[in-house]
Design brief:
The structure holds two protein chains of two kinds. Helices cover about 65% and strands about 10% of the residues of chain A. Chain A is an alpha+beta fold. Chain A has a five-stranded mixed sheet. Chain A has a two-stranded antiparallel ribbon with strand order 1-3. About 5% of the residues of chain B have low confidence. Classes of the chains: A alpha+beta, B alpha/beta.
Chain lengths: ~400, ~240
């Protein structure tokens, strides 16, 4: 199955987005400072003092300086990773940074204006007063710039988080769906339907029975997915239905032997556990062999454990193209439910016979709980038990 | 048209038989439950058409086809639900039916088959053909997940790789489980030429020829492949072409 990495957009996409953001920054930076320049020019035009030489130059220099300082500041903000901070640690940093930038802004501004270009001091106020006003202006200007800058980034990050969250939810749902789908092998379903159609003319009674069995099997696999455990009896019933259908297909090639301790029937097991083992046994033990063979299902209670054994003819070395996905999933489910107390083991014993063995700890309460959960389920189940009750028990031991 | 049903399930075969009863021109000459059985039946009954299940005990349907000597009968695959097999079909116009078989689809597949069977006018019927492969005959090639029915005339070049032969056609070059010598015996010498120990070229695919070192020839095939002929082979080539 093809798997797609979810949550990580492809790098090409990321590169494209980076490019788009870079362009957006350039546009905003230039447009913002141009707007600021226009406002400055407009206001000085309105309130121009009579004898103010070099005012136009001062405005232009202020704006150009602001543009350059913020542009370089951006480089450092990225480098220090401020873009990834949340607003709480950002606020003091923004204030500090704004203060620092405004000092640089004022110092460089006055330095160039009076020091380098040697414009005469034209203000009637004391230089210290002018400088502090300038610093205050710078502080306001730089914090505005930083606020706009980080506001955009916070918003952008929030959006990305939302998308990520959605992706994650989707992927979880997909995984659940996949698990649900994989519970019954589609190859089996369609082959069964095909044999069933052949059976309609040949043996209508058996065909009718097979339809019921297939319905039971499908219903069980759809419903049991939501349960943690089911009573072993229910699972065994489903396995019987499944084997009866496989016998329609394989006829005398598939022989079944059941050896079930009565005490095992009420115990709790994960749904589709025995079914997985039996499906494997048919797939690798019966289907590839021209002469077919016998599948044995043995259930015993020993000490505090339920021993389940499914055996089929075959050898482990041959493999038969098995991917082991079914068994791996079963083992994983066991581990999640029972931890290290449950085991699943596949071995060849004696040679020519493959044994799949599961040990499940007996938990009296959980068995009873599973029973109650099943009993408490809605009407579907009363229909289901009704169907089950009048169904011929072809494979009961 | 003589048809052989190959499926490991008796009920599947009888269901197909029932469906084919509506097509009187398809005569079911036999059934087989596995590939070994099928090989015997094919040799014995020489069917024109196989209905072939893919998953069977023993050799699967693809392996059966690979083991058959060309020319192959027409093949319609039947499969229940097999992602792997369906992938193999994607590369080709191989005909396949999904089980349970839809009678309408079956009729369509048979119509295509009849149309195909009529096309090579004057070509000998399958049963009367000689051991040599005609240009319209098909060989079955499988490599990994991909399968092809290749018309012999579309093969540009065959290259020996030990017991295998690499077959160049279209934009693929899969390996065939036959030695080059075995292939040569089956090819028509009027259409194919043994260029050297390792290569056989299809004369119909020659683009141009240029003189090569020490009396040899360099043959350019359409599609960009180049094949060298030694002096001795160039001699034989000139003789054959001048006739």
């Amino acid at each position: 199955m093809e798997s797609v990495a979810i949550g990580n957009p492809p790098t090409a996409d990321r590169g494209l987005r980076q490019k788009g953001r870079e362009r957006l920054y350039v546009v905003c930076q230039v447009a913002g400072w141009a707007f600021f320049l226009m406002v400055q020019v407009l206001f000085t035009g309105l309130f121009k003092e009579k004898d103010s030489t070099g005012v136009e130059w001062a405005i232009f220099q202020t704006v150009a300086e602001g543009l350059l300082i913020t542009h370089y500041a951006r480089h450092w903000l990225t480098k220090w990773g401020w873009k990834e901070l949340s607003w709480r640690p950002l606020i003091p940093r923004i204030l500090g940074m704004a203060a620092l930038l405004s000092v640089i802004w004022s110092a460089v501004g006055y330095g160039i204006y009076y020091g380098l270009l040697r414009f005469p001091w034209s203000s009637k106020f004391h230089p210290a007063a002018v400088l502090s006003v300038s610093l205050f202006n710078g502080l306001a200007l730089m914090s505005s710039w930083l606020c706009i800058y980080f506001f955009y980034h916070l918003f952008d990050r929030y959006n990305r988080l939302q998308i990520e969250q959605l992706r994650l939810t989707t992927s979880v749902k997909e995984a659940e769906l996949r698990a649900l789908k994989s519970q019954i092998n589609p190859h089996f379903i369609f082959n069964s339907l095909n044999s069933l159609r052949g059976l309609i003319d040949e043996n209508p009674d058996r065909a009718r029975q097979a339809v019921t069995q297939l319905a039971n099997l499908l219903r069980y696999s759809l419903q049991s997915g939501q349960l943690e455990t089911v009573p072993f009896e229910d699972e065994l019933q489903t396995v019987n239905d499944y084997l009866a259908l496989e016998q329609v297909r394989h006829e005398e090639r598939l022989r079944v032997r059941l050896d079930i301790a009565p005490g095992a029937l009420n115990l709790a097991i994960p749904p589709m556990l025995l079914q997985t083992l039996v499906e494997n046994a048919v797939k690798y033990g019966i289907a590839p062999r021209r002469e077919g063979g016998e599948i044995a299902i043995i259930a015993r209670c020993e000490r505090d454990e339920l021993h389940l054994q499914v055996t089929n003819p075959g050898s482990l070395a041959a493999g038969g193209g098995s991917t082991g996905v079914g068994l791996r999933n079963a083992a994983e489910r066991l581990r999640l439910l029972f931890g290290a107390r449950a085991t699943l083991d596949l071995r060849e014993d004696p040679p020519g016979r493959v044994v799949a063995e599961v040990l499940v700890p007996i938990e009296k309460e959980s068995g009873a709980a599973a029973r109650e959960a099943v009993a408490a389920r809605s009407q579907h189940d009363s229909v289901r038990s009704a169907l089950r009750a009048d169904k011929p028990q072809a494979l009961r031991p | 048209m003589k048809a052989l049903l190959i499926d490991d399930e008796r009920l599947a075969r009888s269901e197909l038989r029932r469906l084919l009863a509506k097509h009187p021109d398809i005569a079911i000459v036999g059934e087989a439950a596995n590939s070994d059985d099928a090989r015997l039946r094919i040799a014995e009954l020489v069917p024109d058409l196989l209905f072939l299940d893919i998953q069977m005990p023993g050799d699967d349907g693809f392996a059966l086809l690979e083991s058959l000597d060309a020319p192959l009968p027409q093949v319609i695959f039947t499969t229940a639900y097999d992602e792997f097999a369906l992938k193999a079909f994607e590369f080709n116009a191989l005909d396949y039916l999904m089980k349970p078989v839809d009678p309408v689809r079956l009729a369509a597949a048979l119509d295509r088959l009849r149309a195909r069977a009529e096309r090579p006018a004057g070509a000998p019927q399958f049963a009367e053909r000689t051991a040599r492969l005609a240009p319209e005959d098909k060989v079955f090639v499988r490599e990994g997940e991909r399968c092809w029915f290749v018309e012999v005339k579309s093969i540009r070049l065959m290259e020996s790789e030990g017991n295998y032969t690499r077959v160049h056609f279209g934009d693929a070059q899969p390996q065939l489980f036959r030695s080059l010598n075995a292939m040569e015996e089956r090819l028509d010498p009027k259409c194919f030429f043994r260029a050297n120990r390792r290569q056989i070229i299809n004369l119909a695919w020659i683009d141009r020829i240029e003189p090569w070192f020490s009396g040899g020839l360099l043959v350019h095939l359409k599609g960009g492949l180049k094949v060298e002929l030694s002096r001795r082979q160039a001699q034989a080539f000139r003789e054959q072409m001048s006739l």
